[in-house]
């Protein structure tokens, strides 16, 4: 190497030394160690483990590779200093595998950085996974490969591979099969030897599949991580690898297990590995393999064909892996929707019908901040009151046209007596055209909706009816009735709370009962005039006649945490929050509609 | 139900209905209520409403005083504004029904209150 050239490299390395230290905290030097730092190439500029192995393993066995996401340097270790030195001298400033075929610049380091992402585990299997090597002979492999020729037609070409289905078509749009529409082409009978062998040599004595998917992977192709849909297939799934080996990764939470699938091996997935672990193949041309001796080697991929056999499930999946089970999630969401609407019917809509007259008597004084909002609209504005109740905010601004709506016809009768316009509707859908009103108010309404989806749906509806630039005011009851150490009037109305100024009364546990309603949902009954202990509660309404309690009704409330209302509203991307405030035990928001698009 | 309210109501939230507007009116009892005339309010309301729908709705319940088109320079035409005021705010449909133009679904009006509630399977 010429002096000029050597000096150039040295200058370069001095600079890179600082960059590596800044990026990774690793001190590099020119004193040989087993650890080599590639200072100018890493994941961020296109270097891969495969390239490192391809070019550096010819010098000797590599025992570790650390590549950090987002970094432009990489680290690897040889099993001895001598090998490291030899490789270093042969490649530093010469080997052109850095970005744009530039040479790599190397240094040594005493240690490798902690790899934060690569927690890949080898020589271990997820629970329920079995690999049977040499499950078939080479002749049988040839026979199976001949069953299925791929003709490159568009229909069987996937983005990453080619596929063919037998028995039933696996649909990639919904990750399921049409169980009532079997394909004319059944699983070829040549495959029968596989389960005969399985029945003989394993615990799975009865497995006979009725669906086969053949995948054809060229080098560089892979399959994204997935769990085979629970409701589509039974527990056991077997997959035969033909012609070339590949590394399949199994992931669950932060665990990542690499499993080598040699040609002619059978991979058996059952139980946890089938239901709760994802599996996938990284699209690349060769695999990095950690051998049992603890060194990394590169395994070039050839064309690999896999035969995956599955048994169609009849009925729903009943596994215990709730997180990944589509049968469970499907049931849960419909059940929740039904019970939310049942709770509202029983503990909101019918209660207001029953208490309307008494409720209306006690709801005459408008809240000043709501009134101020109503009065802020110009002459000729149209304002919709969603959940208007007895209409205490209607007709207050004489220059606007305001209409109320509510589910309770008994309360709307009160509106009519006062000559207010009103109609009956549920706030989940408003019978108004898009972009028709200048303002919406919804005071103490959406806390009566029994699921977050429904509360969001109600807000979406209000925003939909607003003109662009129109404003909505929403009030909901706050869980915290003691904000800034000030008791709200709701709390103060309790005599005990009025007397004592210290701690506010929190209901004693034993005073609270739970009510199990018809839909099987159990809700705590709140003790009136006390701080809330739960977010979803039943609040008693005592119907009085001549000051005597005649009947008690339980109203459902979802009381809101500090930022819950604003977070919910801002899930819509066509509104902005103009003001968010706490007003006498309520969380309040003023929204402005910014565009037609509904988020 | 005033015709101004009718001008904004739709059945579009129903399953299978795309526009649901305007709703037809079948009126069994119509009353006239006196409302203070506010020419500024009426003039501001005119550009906001669907005039064709208002005109059609008024005709369908026997209010034939409105011209087919909004007159020019209506802001200063008190006679015209009074007519509009009357049709928009003073005519009150007490009993009858609103009918979805696409499905024929009927929404009853009782005591002046249209019932737009839908069954769960209609949404």
Give the count of helical stretches of chain B.
4
The tally of structural domains of chain A comes to 3
Tell me what portion of residues of chain A adopts beta-strand conformation.
Answer: 25-35%
Give helix % range of chain B: 25-40%
**Uncertain spans of chain A:** 497-513, 516-520
CATH class of chain B: Mainly Beta
User: Can you summarize the main beta sheet of chain B?
Assistant: 4 strands, antiparallel
DSSP E strands of chain B, number: 4
- Shape label of chain B: globular
What's the pLDDT, averaged over the residues of chain A? 87
Set down the secondary structure blueprint.
The complex is a heterodimer of chains A (599) and B (123).
Chain A: H1 3-24, E1 28-29, E2 35-38, H2 49-56, E3 62-67, E4 74-78, H3 81-91, E5 106-109, E6 120-121, E7 129-132, H4 138-146, E8 162-166, E9 170-171, E10 176-177, H5 192-201, E11 211-217, E12 223-226, E13 233-242, E14 246-252, E15 255-261, E16 266-269, H6 271-275, E17 278-281, E18 286-290, E19 296-300, E20 304-312, H7 326-362, H8 368-375, E21 382-386, E22 401-406, H9 409-417, E23 421-424, E24 437-443, H10 452-465, E25 466-477, H11 489-492, H12 495-499, E26 514-516, E27 522-524, E28 536-545, E29 548-558, H13 564-569, E30 575-583, E31 586-593
Parallel strand pairs in A: 6-15, 21-22, 21-24, 22-23, 24-25
Antiparallel strand pairs in A: 1-5, 2-4, 2-5, 3-4, 7-16, 8-11, 9-10, 11-20, 12-17, 13-16, 13-20, 14-15, 14-17, 18-19, 25-31, 26-27, 28-29, 30-31
Chain B: H1 3-6, E1 24-32, H2 39-45, H3 51-60, H4 78-90, E2 91-99, E3 106-110, E4 113-114
Antiparallel strand pairs in B: 1-2, 2-3, 3-4
């Amino acid at each position: 190497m010429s002096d000029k050239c050597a000096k150039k490299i040295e200058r370069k390395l001095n600079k890179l030394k600082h960059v590596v230290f800044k990026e990774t905290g690793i001190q590099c030097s020119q004193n040989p160690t087993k650890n080599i730092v590639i200072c100018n190439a890493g994941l961020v500029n296109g270097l891969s483990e495969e390239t490192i192995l391809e070019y550096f393993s010819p010098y000797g066995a590599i025992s570790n590779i650390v590549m950090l996401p987002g970094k432009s340097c990489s680290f690897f270790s040889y099993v001895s200093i001598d090998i490291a030195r030899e490789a270093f001298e042969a490649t530093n400033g010469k080997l052109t595998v850095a970005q744009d075929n530039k040479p790599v610049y190397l240094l040594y380091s005493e240690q490798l950085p902690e790899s934060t992402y690569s927690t890949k585990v080898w020589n271990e299997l997820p629970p329920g996974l079995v690999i049977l090597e040499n499950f078939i002979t080479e002749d049988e492999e040839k026979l199976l490969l001949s069953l299925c020729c791929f003709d490159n037609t568009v229909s069987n070409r996937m983005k990453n591979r080619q596929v063919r289905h037998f028995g039933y078509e696996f649909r990639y749009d919904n990750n399921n099969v049409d169980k009532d529409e079997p394909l004319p082409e059944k699983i070829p009978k040549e495959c029968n030897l596989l389960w005969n062998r399985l029945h003989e040599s394993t615990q799975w004595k009865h497995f006979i599949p009725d669906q086969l998917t053949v995948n054809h992977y060229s080098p560089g192709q892979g399959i994204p991580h997935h769990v085979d849909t629970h409701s589509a297939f039974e527990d056991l799934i077997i997959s035969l690898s033909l012609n070339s080996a590949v590394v399949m990764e199994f992931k669950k939470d932060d665990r990542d297990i690499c499993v080598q699938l040699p040609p002619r091996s059978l991979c058996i997935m059952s139980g946890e590995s089938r239901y709760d672990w994802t599996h996938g193949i990284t699209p690349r041309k060769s695999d990095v393999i950690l051998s049992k001796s603890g060194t990394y080697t590169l395994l070039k991929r050839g064309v690999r064909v896999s035969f995956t056999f599955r048994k169609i499930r009849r009925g729903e999946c009943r596994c215990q892996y709730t997180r990944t089970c589509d049968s469970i999630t499907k049931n849960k969401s419909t059940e929740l929707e039904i019970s939310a609407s049942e709770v509202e019917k029983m503990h909101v809509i019918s209660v207001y019908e029953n208490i309307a007259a008494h409720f209306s008597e006690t709801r005459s004084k408008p809240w000043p901040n709501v009134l101020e909002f109503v009065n802020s609209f110009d002459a000729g504005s149209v304002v919709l009151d969603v959940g208007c109740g007895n209409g205490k905010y209607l007709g207050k601004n004489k220059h606007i046209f305001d209409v109320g709506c509510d589910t309770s016809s008994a309360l709307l009768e009160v509106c009519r007596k006062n000559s207010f316009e009103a109609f009956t509707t549920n706030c989940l859908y408003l019978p108004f055209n898009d972009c028709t009103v200048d303002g919406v108010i919804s005071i103490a309404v959406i806390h009566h909706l029994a699921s977050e989806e429904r509360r969001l749906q109600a807000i979406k509806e209000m925003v939909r009816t607003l003109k662009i630039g129109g404003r909505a005011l929403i009030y909901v009851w706050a869980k915290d009735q003691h904000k800034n150490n000030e008791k709200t009037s709701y709390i103060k109305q309790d005599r005990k709370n009025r007397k004592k100024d210290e701690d506010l009364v929190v209901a004693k546990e034993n005073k609270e009962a739970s009510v199990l309603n018809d839909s099987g949902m159990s809700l705590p009954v709140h003790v009136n005039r006390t701080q809330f202990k739960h977010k979803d509660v039943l609040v008693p309404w005592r119907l009085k006649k001549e000051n005597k309690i005649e009947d008690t009704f339980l109203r459902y409330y979802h009381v809101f945490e500090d930022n819950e209302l604003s977070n919910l509203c801002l899930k819509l991307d066509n509104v902005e929050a103009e003001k968010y405030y706490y007003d006498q035990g309520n969380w309040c928001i003023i929204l402005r509609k910014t565009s037609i698009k509904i988020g | 139900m005033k015709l101004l309210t009718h001008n904004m109501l739709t059945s579009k939230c129903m399953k299978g209905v795309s526009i649901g507007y305007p709703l037809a009116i079948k009126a069994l009892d119509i009353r006239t209520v006196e409302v203070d005339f506010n020419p500024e309010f009426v003039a501001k309301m005119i550009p906001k409403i669907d005039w064709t729908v208002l005109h059609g709705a008024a005709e369908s319940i026997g209010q034939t005083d409105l011209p087919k088109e909004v007159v020019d320079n209506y802001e200063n035409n008190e006679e015209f504004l009074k007519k509009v005021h009357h049709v928009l705010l003073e005519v009150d449909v007490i009993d009858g029904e609103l009918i979805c133009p696409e499905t024929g679904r009927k929404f009853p009006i009782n005591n002046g209150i249209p019932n737009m509630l839908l069954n769960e399977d209609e949404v």
